[in-house]
Amino acid sequence: MIVSLQVFETVFAFTIVVLFCLVLRKFSIIKEEDGNVFAKLLTHAVLPAVIFLQLSATPIKGNQFLLVLSIFVAGVLSMLLAWLAGRLLGLSKAKTGALMLTSSFGSSALLGYPFIAFTFPNNPEAIADAVLLSEIGVGLPMFILGPAIAIFFGDKTEIFNMKKTFFLSYFRSPVFISVLLGISVSFLPVNRGNSFISPFFEALHMINGALTILACLILSLTLKFKALKGIVPLFIISALIQMWFQPFVAHTQATLYHLSIIQTQVLVLISAMPSAVLGPVFASRYNCAPETTSALVIANIVLSIAMIPAVFYFMG
Q1: What pLDDT digit, counting tens, does each position of 169-185 carry?
Q2: Around 175, how many Cα atoms within 13 Å sit in the side-chain half-sphere?
Q3: pTM value?
Q4: With 70 as the cut, is the pLDDT of residue 44 above it?
Q5: Can you give the residue range of the structural domain that contains 109?
Q6: CATH number for the domain including 184?
Q7: Alpha helices of the chain — where are they, by DSSP H?
Q8: Per-residue pLDDT tens over the stretch 54-67
Q9: Which residues are paired to 106 by β-bridges?
Q10: What is the domain count for the chain?
C-alpha cells in the first residue's frame, strides 16, 4: 500500500511539473525548437551520467538477467498481439506497423527513470534494476526490432541502411558506453569516500537531479493534443496492450522466477510505461504511418497519468 501511494504521488507530482512546463510553452518561455537541445542534453549527457552513477554502485547479480528476460518477452509478445489486432481489424500494412511500434517497448528512459527514482528514493538497487531493464531489456531490442518493423511495414527503399543508421549507432552511443563502464566499475574496489573520487560522484548526483525536469520539458514540447483526433480505436488497443497486457505478462514471469518484491515492483512499473518516443522516429525514417505513430505515442503518454498507478495497484 505504501509503494502504491508513492507511485500515485510520483505520477501526480510528475503531472504538475509537466503542466508547469506547458505553461512555460504557452508563454513562449520555452519553444518547440528547444526540444532538440533538451533531447540532446538528456541522451548525450544526463542519461549517461545517471546510468554510470547507478550501475557503478552495485555489482550485477544473476537474477537481474531474469528481469531483462521478463521485460523482453513481455515486449515481444505485446508486439505480436498488436500485429494480430492489426490483422483482425483489417488495418493497412503501415498502420499495423505503427500499432506494433507503439504497443511493445515503452518509454523507459524518458519516463521510467524519474518514476523509479521518486518511487524508490535512496534505493540504489531499484535504480540499477531500472537501468538494466531500460537499456538492455528495452533499449537494445527497440533499436534492433523498431527499424526492422518500420522497414517491413513501411517504405523499404532504404532497407540496407537499417543496421548502419540505427543498430550500430546504439552501440556507439554515450548511453551504451556508460552501461559498459558502469558495469565494469561496479566490480572494482572503488572507495567513493576518497577525497579525490568523492567530488566526481557528487557531481554525478547533481547531474542526476536534472533528469526529471529535462524529461518534463521534452514531454511538454512534444504534446500536441490536436493529433489525438481520429485514432480512438487504435489508441484503445495500443494502450491496453502497452500498459495492461505487457505489465501482466511481466508480473506473471516475475512470479514464476521468484523475483523479489522490489524487483517485481520495478519490473511492473517499467513495463507499464507508455509508448517509446523512438517509435515515431523509426516510423518517420521509413514512412510507416508516422502521423498515426506520433499520435498514438502522445495519446499513450497522456493516458499514462491515470494508467500507471491503476496498473500498479491492480497488479498488487
Answers
A1: 667 778 778 878 888 88
A2: 21
A3: 0.73
A4: yes
A5: 2-314
A6: 1.20.1530.20
A7: 2-26, 35-41, 47-55, 64-89, 93-101, 113-119, 124-132, 140-153, 162, 168-172, 174-186, 198-208, 210-222, 232-240, 246-256, 261-271, 278-285, 290-314
A8: 777 777 777 778 88
A9: 275
A10: 1
